Predict the structure.
Amino acid sequence: MGRKTIKVDYLARVEGEGALNVTIRDGQVSKAELRIFEPPRFFEAFLRGRDYAEAPDVTARICGICPVAYQMSAVHAMENALGIEVEGQLRALRRLLYCGEWIESHALHIYMLHAPDFLGYAGAVDMARDYPDIVKRGLSLKKAGNAIMALLGGREIHPINVRVGGFYRTPTRKELEPLAETLKQARENALATVRWTAGLEMPEAERDYHLVALHHPGEYAMNVGRIVSNRGLDIAVADYNRHFVESHVQRSTALHSHLREHDCYLVGPLARYSLNHGQLSSLARETAKEAGLGVTCTNPFQSIVVRSVEVVYACDEALRIIDEYREPERPFELAEPKASEGFGCTEAPRGLLFHRYRLDASGGILEAQIVPPTAQNQPSIEADLKDLVGGWLDLPADTLRERCEQTIRNYDPCISCATHFLKLDVRHE
Amino acid sequence: MSDVSGPIRVIGIGNRDRGDDALGPLVVDALRDRLPATVSAVEHSGEVAGLVDLISDAKAVYLVDAAVMGLEPGSFREFDASTSPLPALGGAFSSHALGLSEAIELARALDALPSVCRVFAVEAASFEAGEGLSHPLGDTLPRVAQAVIDSLRQESGHA
């Protein structure tokens, strides 16, 4: 058997623009390259010289799908730099806001972007013609996430109410009450989503991943924790750069992340679930068990089921926070600028999102580093393809190409988020 | 979001802080005092679930969005989407990753598209964060607002 190339020039149903080349030589996959060609967005450079307080709003603009993740990593990094801790109800409200983003983003991915792969449709519109009630359920679920975002964030996309030290304005108990009703209905839809996704036909594809996620001793990690892995990594967020490294590859405007000692790794729902399963709510754990999931999950195609379980958890957790909510005395803690460096890491829907900032004495940003989940997962996406495509070579060409695209969409890659500014150093001698 | 109560809606899609993406919201601003009580002017981010809702429980919708159609910046096109999809569906028609054309087609697939669905698309020059509306789009804005008024007058007998 000679050389064969699978080429996908435009990857549909991912955020941003990307392409894929897989080369097969003598029945073996010799190369799998995900090319990202979205123009770099210069956000890290754009932040330099701005005030520390601007970072949450500026970084929220990196992505329309996961703005809260950017805000949360940014505010935590700034608070780490300035030596303040946000506790009590303000901390709980931030967790509630993040629940909104998980519900919104996961529902979009499950119903609009990924489910059509499993049911053999080109996209959500075609699927809606045959499964109108399923798609309506997905839209309704997504709207419940939007409702949290709108109430706490000030608007559904690119929220504006988060600030270093807390919020500009906190809600009253009365304002949160209608949200609880919306979330109870959403939880029913989320449970139905798990049962439905569990019934989808899954390709057999267990992978031996190095799973990396945040872990917190007292809660399913979302906003804070240590960075842990299934192979013994256990580090503080501030030590991220000692263990992880980004490098440029010519085919892509996104940087590739690697663990210094172990090469590629996986962040996102499978890693979170497998490393923190015991901290899910009992309802989410029971639902996962009914769906046939074990305490770990390493079949990338089952990420659609794991995301659904996380939506159940996010609804449950949001309801708990609303139930226990007491209006805080003040909406934020005051921060005093000082020359410092700070680190923040949170769990975006797609996985670990790391921010680092260096500030001058007046709070001006001297340096910004943002490592989004898709850049961290890019080598893992290529490794999946290299590992899995060899077993699919008997499939017809179109089916094989679709399976490759589906493999990429398992990750819900956000290519807009993944692009970085590549510094060009020209020397004249 | 502004008033959404009217069964006839003008929906300006976009983001005020992303260059020419502000066109939709700014057309809504320009129209707000010129519309009768039965027509509401609504600003929307383009988020698909919310947009499907806004479209599908209306009697008529007039959607305004900045777009990438390969025309000169500031050129605008008016489409009747009530009977057929927008051109270049699935491509980079709208400024939103999963937005206007998908929302219209989802509403159609769910048998919830109103009988009047007109789209006013304006070729954008830039979607850069923090930049204001570019000159060509600033010049086009009053013409787009007037075109929406004319269309409302023709099709619904309103305005």
Notes: The first strand of chain B starts at residue 8 and ends at 13.
